[in-house]
Amino acid sequence: MAFIDTLVMGKPAWMWAIFMTIVVILLAVDLGLFHRKAREIGVRESLLLSAFYITIGLAFGAWVWLNIGPTSGKEYLTGFLVEKTLSMDNIFVMSLIFTYFGIPRIYQHRVLFYGILGVILLRGIVIALGAWLVASFHWVLYIFALLLIFTGIKMLLPGDDEPDIEENFALRIMRRFLRITPKLHGQRFFIRQPDDKTGKILTWVTPLFVAMILIEIVDVIFALDSIPAIFAITTDTFVVYTSNIFAILGLRALYFALAAVIDRFSYLKPALAMILVFIGSKIFVADLAGWEKFPSSVSLSVTIALIAGGILYSLWRTQRDPEPPSPNDKVQNAKPGDV
């Protein structure tokens, strides 16, 4: 029984056990109960699932507040909100990937579900590395802060940052070294079929598998923003990891709810850019002011204000302006199912 009180990355093992138990239950219920068979997820169901995951994430934040302290609770909520907002760009890129490969909605949940499993592991590795760097070299926090400020300013500058799926380096590598079927084969990632030239039965990967790998890579790229952001908010590894994972767990449901209307929130991106600049700047402000730490209440309040402002302004502008094009309409040279 002494094990449950053993410190693991600064927190008792029982806290980590509670967190991992909740995550495993959520994943098991998602796959085993709600989505045992491939089916299309409607907007209403997506909104309900999103509300459910957000409620679970906020409830865990309340638990952190009560069991670790108000400061940790505020830092968790700030990190949770920032990660949720960052996922908006993630959703847009996912939409481009699915459109490029012509993957229907009925199979998209399978890709996102197994993608989330990979994300949980990858984020754990990246966060553990980040925690080690911060603990060993405190000045790394200033590098993270400068990276956030630079990224935020870059996001505010005009320019088309839409990724080109066709010219993606990872896709070119997979095309070179993997046997990829030209068309989908239901919800299967791998199939056995004869080679066109030799007639030998070989294992092939399907476009569904390729899309999943690209989504994993996208998450690693987005982690370059979100991980420095959360470490600039708090260096508590437990708060960093749990806030990230609870924000990501609801990403699948949020995708189906927002993929078709993501451009309605086009003015959320400047708000996110300002959040990144603010989070990066507050480390330097705290040093100049002689504070041990920037007030967590201020961080949470500013983050909520910027996100709410970005959402409300986006909704107001899109009511006045003509309907913007869907993200799927922006994909150029996309050949559904053709890789």
UniProtKB/TrEMBL annotation:
The keyword Calcium is assigned to this record: no
Keywords: Membrane, Transmembrane, Transmembrane helix
Domain of life: Bacteria
Membrane spanning residue stretches: 13-34, 46-66, 86-104, 111-133, 139-157, 201-224, 244-262, 271-291, 297-316
Record membrane topology: Multi-pass membrane protein
InterPro entries: Integral_membrane_TerC, Integral_membrane_TerC_rswitch
Protein's cellular compartments: Membrane
Gene Ontology CC annotation, any one: membrane
Entry keyword Repressor: no
Annotated family: Belongs to the TerC family.
PANTHER family (alphabetical): MEMBRANE BOUND PREDICTED REDOX MODULATOR (PTHR30238), THYLAKOID MEMBRANE PROTEIN TERC, CHLOROPLASTIC (PTHR30238:SF0)
Entry protein name: Tellurium resistance protein TerC
Protein species of origin: Methyloceanibacter stevinii
Upper classification of the organism: Bacteria, Pseudomonadati, Pseudomonadota, Alphaproteobacteria, Hyphomicrobiales
